[in-house]
Amino acid sequence: DTEVTQTPKHLVMGMTNKKSLKCEQHMGHRAMYWYKQKAKKPPELMFVYSYEKLSINESVPSRFSPECPNSSLLNLHLHALQPEDSALYLCASSQDYRGQGAEVGQPQHFGDGTRLSIL
Amino acid sequence: TQLLEQSPQFLSIQEGENLTVYCNSSSVFSSLQWYRQEPGEGPVLLVTVVTGGEVKKLKRLTFQFGDARKDSSLHITAAQPGDTGLYLCAGGLGDKIIFGKGTRLHILP
Do B92 and A105 touch (CB under 8 A)? Predict the structure, then answer.
């Protein structure tokens, strides 16, 4: 069982819908991440929150809006998505975003993802 | 430019055989992680290597970090069908988190 919980597991939505993906962790981690993964490709980083503040936005279109209500929760609000946005959306967490030497790339714990299909 | 090159991209071998997959870069990483991802699931962290020359063992899996911290390898002894999956290496470079494209491993019973 994963320690990072994502809901829903599957989501089908139309291009005009508004929906949200949710992610929760109770490991006391202070960094949380959203990734997008297309079939047979590695995860692509979208956003990083560190201590509940947005640290990284990898030039993600504004139709994706992240939110970190507290240190355990991470949401991804979706609006007016395109068919090419269909993918597996993964949430991850790590103890910190930067290590003791301020380096990024800390070990991450991933959820099992939300498989999103845009009609 | 792919900053972390993984090879081979695909590998299909018989149960009981040994194999090695590689993660190479021209850049120095402070640490590298290896993950395994099975269909329908998220990546699972296998190991982190942080010291040049470091070797870590996880049952039948042996991970090595190159002396110059530019490359890493994963060796599996006596592969089993349960080892099937996508193996990803990842690390931090500057302010970027970099993933390799992965090695898709299939162990035939």
Answer: yes
